[in-house]
Amino acid sequence: MDGKIFLGGGGPDYEVGQWLDLKYANRHGLIAGATGTGKTVTLQILAEGFSDAGVPVFMADVKGDLSGMAKSGSAAHKLHGPFTERAEKIGFEGYDYRACPVTFWDLFGEQGHPVRTTVAEMGPLLLSQLLELSEAQEGILNIAFRLSDEEGLPLLDLKDLQALLVWIGENAKSLSLRYGNISTASVGAIQRRLLVIENQGGDRLFGEPALDLADLMRTDSEGRGMVNILASDKLMASPKLYATFLLWLLSELFEELPEVGDPDKPKLVFFFDEAHLLFDDAPKALIDKVEQVARLIRSKGVGVYFITQNPADVPEDILGQLGNRIQHALRAFTAKDRKNLRLAAETYRENPAFDTEDAIRDVGVGEAVTSLLQKKGVPGIVERTLIRPPSSQLGPIGPAERRAILNSSDMAGKYDTPLDRKSAFEILAKRAEMAAREAEDAEVKAEEASPWEREYNSARRYSGSRVSRSSSRAPKRTKKEDTLTSAMGEAVIKELKGTTGRRIVRGILGSLFKGR
Predict the structure, then answer these.
(1) What's 20's domain CATH number?
(2) Per-residue model confidence (pLDDT) at position 317
(3) Which burial class, exposed, middle or buried, applies to 248 when counting CB atoms under 10 A from its CB (0-12, 13-18, 19+)?
């Protein structure tokens, strides 16, 4: 059906088709469910549907099995045989096997084209979240970004930021008068956090050439939307880096894309897998940022779909923005699980044919409870839905197949070679080199001076109020030393004025006269 994506069959016998209207696909969505209930298949068939409709997709491959979308499925595959039966059961006419146009990306540049951004583009808020900085440390990071703009010190990669922080630490006293207290201990703490990120491979994220967002919004020669897959199996070892990068990407889309209102279909659909990583222990400022993006980015034609195990993982203010919902089974083994199950059920428009809470608990693998936006954006009545089978391969492709796709990609060679143009690190290094050279020249000049020049330089100077010498003269006694000497002198004089003193004087004088 034009303008819609077939999701599966609903109703008692799954004969009622469930369709996602492309006109409302940018109203965002949620795919939730316990491990092993079918979230990955749902994610895959939605990406296929958007691609067939000419809508580019960006998705993170957390488990490493979404790479199979680049290859056609097969009836001979052990997992695809039952899919043919499922297609017949739900009335999925025209079901066939075909691959999707895929571009592979990787922050580490190993399983896909490298993805980079600059430190300046990341900004202090997201970078503070990535580094898990305290409020005081975040303040210093904001000062660093301010100085970068004022001093003409571009922040492109981590070594630029590290060099600027060293400069800030060396000039902390003078900078504190202007920007507030700058603690060298806090600067050191930020440097240590940067070192941790660097050891985790995060330094590969920062640099140039930076990712051009237009490269995520391409279509192939047949007009199908490109499926951009970010290799995230290794990235998940650094969950903060994963979450921060995806939020940065959303923020960049929000900043750069023009307003389009309510288009007939999205310009891009963004799938955020393991969404709970974004919200775990996140500060309120970051939650507010995500909510702002979720509220406003739909007017840019971008749909955002969060994938997580439990709807409770997503803050309520953001959950309220997710109009299209696909809920796989939730297990209720504990009191907290039962509470979350009840809350999840209460968010759906009731269906008199069944109890929503029971349905969410009882649906099997490959089934889901769905509610999709209908005419005028009204939430549809909740339905038990058997999800349609995917057309592309279920499961990963081999390394050789991935390499062949990378070599034939339009992006081959564009991002492979990193650039290192003049930025904060080089500018500050040059300043330090010039200062060292000037000091060395001054020292050589002093050594080469004639004796009378050295004498002149060490002579007294009259400044109009006092006479001073150069630092080459003997050091002046301190006030403490002067006080001690004066006290001793006064004691001796006092003693000499007394009886004992007179006896000593007389004895000395007598000895002198006797010797004559």
Answers:
(1) 3.40.50.300
(2) 87
(3) buried
Asked if 227 contacts 100 with a C-beta cutoff of 8 angstroms, the reply is yes
At 516 the pLDDT is 45
Cα of first residue to Cα of last residue in the chain, in angstroms, is 139
Residue 339 identity: K
Q: Contact at 8 Å (CB) between 321 and 294? A: yes
Q: Same structural domain for residues 325 and 397?
A: yes
| DSSP 8-state secondary structure symbol assigned to residue 64 | S
- Cis status of the peptide bond prior to 101, with omega within 30 of 0: no
Residue ranges of the chain with per-residue pLDDT less than 50: 470-476, 479-481, 484, 492, 500, 502-516
On whether both 366 and 289 belong to a single domain, the answer is yes
Q: Which of 169, 172, 171 is CA-nearest to residue 189?
A: 169
Over the chain, what is the mean pLDDT?
86
Q: Give phi and psi for 231, each to the nearest 5.
A: -65, 115
Report the alpha-carbon distance of residue 194 to residue 197 in Å, rounded: 5
pLDDT in tens, 41-64: 999 999 999 999 999 999 999 888
Q: What is the pLDDT of residues 106-135, one digit of tens each?
A: 999 999 999 999 999 999 989 998 898 999
Structural domain for 384, as ranges? 4-115+215-408
Residue entry with tokens 């999701």: 7
Q: Are residues 261 and 124 in the same domain?
A: no
pTM of the model: 0.82
What was the pLDDT predicted at 507?
47
* Closest C-alpha among 376, 391, 370, 381 to residue 20: 370
Strands (E), 365-436: 367-371, 383-387
* CB contact at 8 A, 129 and 240: yes
Q: Which amino acid is at 121?
A: E
Q: How far apart are CA 139 and CA 154, in angstroms?
A: 19
> Buried b / exposed e across 282-305, counting CB within 10 Å, b at 16+?
beeebeebbbebbeebbbbbbbbb
Distance CA 402, CA 104 (A): 8
